[in-house]
Amino acid sequence: MREKFRELVKRKNRIHANLELIQWDLETKTPLKSRPYLSELVGELSMQDYALSTSDEFVNLVEELNKQKETLTEIEKREIELSMEEIEKKKKIPADEYEDYAKLTSYNQTVWEEAKAKKDFSIVKEGLKKIFDYNKKFATYRRKDEKTLYDVLLNDYEKGMDTERLDVFFSELKKEIVPFLKKIQEKKKTIKEVDKISVPIDEDVQLKFAKFLSSYVGFDFEKGLVETSEHPFTLNLNKNDVRLTTKNKKDSPMSTVFSIIHESGHGIYEQQTGDELIDTLLGTGGSMGLHESQSRFMENIVGANKAFWKPLYNKAGEFYPFLKDIEFEEFYKQINRIEPGLIRVEADELTYSLHIMLRYEIEKMLINGEINIDDLPKIWNEKVKEYLGLEPKNDSEGLMQDIHWYCGLIGYFPSYAIGNAYASQIYNAMKKDFDVEKALENQDLKKITDWLGEKIHKYGLLKDTPTIIKEVTGEELNPKYYIEYLKEKYSKIYEI
Amino acid sequence: MREKFRELVKRKNRIHANLELIQWDLETKTPLKSRPYLSELVGELSMQDYALSTSDEFVNLVEELNKQKETLTEIEKREIELSMEEIEKKKKIPADEYEDYAKLTSYNQTVWEEAKAKKDFSIVKEGLKKIFDYNKKFATYRRKDEKTLYDVLLNDYEKGMDTERLDVFFSELKKEIVPFLKKIQEKKKTIKEVDKISVPIDEDVQLKFAKFLSSYVGFDFEKGLVETSEHPFTLNLNKNDVRLTTKNKKDSPMSTVFSIIHESGHGIYEQQTGDELIDTLLGTGGSMGLHESQSRFMENIVGANKAFWKPLYNKAGEFYPFLKDIEFEEFYKQINRIEPGLIRVEADELTYSLHIMLRYEIEKMLINGEINIDDLPKIWNEKVKEYLGLEPKNDSEGLMQDIHWYCGLIGYFPSYAIGNAYASQIYNAMKKDFDVEKALENQDLKKITDWLGEKIHKYGLLKDTPTIIKEVTGEELNPKYYIEYLKEKYSKIYEI
């Protein structure tokens, strides 16, 4: 019976790898007229995966093995536990609706690309409405004792998380961060800040620098690769095949830098999952919040660290010659400049949470039926005005800036904020073990990735996120480390 | 019954598209440590295709429909005819051997790459031996009334072709071409020829020029793309997704030019197969010889034509600045210089046949058991010495230069010679309809590709090659047009 289970798991993993490969192609290079066909193929493979996971054979096997847990290895026990949850979830969604939805989310990504390029929300509005409708419907099917429909979705990305706890979490951040931000803005009026770096750099050169940086922070090119796409992402066939993208905009060469360090954080996590988890259901990174903690750790705590850039600054000038004309101290201040902006992925560390809060509030209302898609542009722009004091010129720099909703990731955004908080909490724990800044200055990034690999990455899905966070940091999610980290760092930079 | 057949065909096409996509990835970018897994996936999908094609359901359906041909459309009739042949063939090969072989040929390509890079035939020798052994074995299973085992394989790529006819074909070429080549070599002694173009050009720039040229000759980037790989090839998921590669060697920028025009010829053929053949078994190009006629037509008759380059020469100088220092007439002579060399894909039009003859003779002997793999390096080098008067410095510029044998393409090489002959025969017919050189000078490549599309491409596999050639040119394969074309062109260039 265990052998049969292993065989089906292997089969599931192959379908997954195949799916990811086609997705990769669709996102990075599929010719225009080939997209509908490959999207159909994605639908068919998702259907195969779905059929396998809900087949009598697989379900019976899991339920039988679940009854004899004591005979199983630790890995198998966890596989069965997660499979029981998946079975639960999938059984409640009718097969044809699931297939339709898979095709829809896959195809709609290319529609979103077009709509964004043309700055025309109407092109993708209908698709987005369908995606939200499906999510509401699925949440209705699956709802047990969750207080709201939105709570059902939240749980998919961060198990155990609910609206109640999140409301508290965000209000805590708000309470501390907003006045601190105000202080900085007051101080900014009295100092002369350098202009934002925006010297144009060829896309080819940006890609080369991206590959260099990715390798520098520890991404292994024998087990992965880097290309370009409309929106940066990380995808993995398995731990030996992890793929990152970057979007190289000629006029903002620094975006590429932080975006690729971010994705590398995701990628290294996947590459460092344990070898013993290959061909199991556990050989991939944990919850979204934990995954984001790894990417944000790399992007901000490592990649925006003075000690990271110090030994690297001359080298960086070889790729981006304009850096040779900027003093290092000035560069450091510049990459950590606080400035409310419209684009989430370009936001500084302080205003970032406001971007997330806004999305959290809107998707919560949409799913819970308090507003609908037609209201979206208006509400988005009102909240941007309220939180950031800004007005989007068009929907491409407003509600169409992120791919998430358009490919079905609803309830995902809060993970970014949770990830930031986890990252600081993990950083606090790491510092007790060794001098992180010294490792960065010594260009010994391996010390950091080894530590993360040993404490977090190697477990894959074997342990759940709350357990890992507890073991690594000694306590549960606590926003105080995030708040302290931000205050300490930016008090220094802005001398307040 | 017909509906069921359509459904299975659609399924077959999807498996094919999926397979091609993974092959594309393996050839162009799969990370080193991911290759074995993706090769396994290829094996599994080939197995699915095999299982479907040999399933009782499919076989019975085909056999039943074969009995009621009069009720079928023209397309269905031809599908059933080809399916009957495929069933015949596959039924004779045991499933497990077929699966092993598919994995072997897929994986062995990467071994070949390594062996070629390290100039060490011993790395890939064992793999090559297995591939030849499998081909011998399969030919033995499948042999009916063919005179030799090799004839069985020949038939796979060029139906109706046999050793007897090929021996005559090659001896005809030999009889005419060898003395003509001698004349040219005598003349060469009395003239001063310019040095071969070998100014280094960045690989990135070469790729940009390759994309430009591909588009210029009519390859449609909404239905295809161009990337790089170890060995140039064309692959198609379907007519809306055709993918070409080029190998850009910094030191020989002109190789890229002719290689991409060659592959574009293949690609345009696929893109122009009829829309009514989508989702049938006929939506792809015909026999290998006919396919090669299209690529060689583009590469030589179009791409090495004075009228092709005349209006393009200034533009070419923008990509390859060294061209600005070369007079156009000199350039034209240079790209059509006759000079025996070691590498087939870089061979001039005259000595090209000698490269094919050599491969034809060797693979014929290997399959018929007259020599074995251990003898290969010695025999290869002896024949190269005999036919071309040259000695390879190592096996990478000898028997490892072409991917074909290493991925199982045995009996394929003769198609190149047949393709050349067809190309000249087709060119002769085209000239009766319009002034081809004038179209080239007017940059009206569409006139040429439309003609090819209408007369050849649109039929896909609906008609067989002998029928198409007969309809287009009024007669069967006849090497005289090839010989006339070569003599006329090179008599002018060398003024003999």
From TrEMBL, chains A, B:
Key word Manganese present in the record? Answer: no
Q: Which CDD domains match?
A: M32_Taq
Q: InterPro entries, alphabetically? A: Peptidase_M32_Taq
Q: What is its EC number?
A: 3.4.17.19
According to the lineage, what is the superkingdom?
Bacteria
Pfam families named among the record's database cross-references: Peptidase_M32 (PF02074)
Q: Name one GO molecular function term.
A: metal ion binding
Q: Which residues form the active site?
A: 263 (proton donor/acceptor)
Catalytically driven reaction(s): Release of a C-terminal amino acid with broad specificity, except for -Pro
Could you mention a single GO BP entry for this protein? proteolysis
The record's top EC class is hydrolase
- Keyword field: Carboxypeptidase, Hydrolase, Metal-binding, Metalloprotease, Protease, Zinc
Co-factor note (free text): Binds 1 zinc ion per subunit.
**Annotated residues for binding of Zn(2+):** 262, 266, 292
Needed co-factor(s): Zn(2+)
The text of the family note is: Belongs to the peptidase M32 family.
The protein's job, in short, is: Broad specificity carboxypetidase that releases amino acids sequentially from the C-terminus, including neutral, aromatic, polar and basic residues.
Protein name from the UniProt record: Metal-dependent carboxypeptidase
User: Which organism's genome codes for this protein?
Assistant: Fusobacterium pseudoperiodonticum
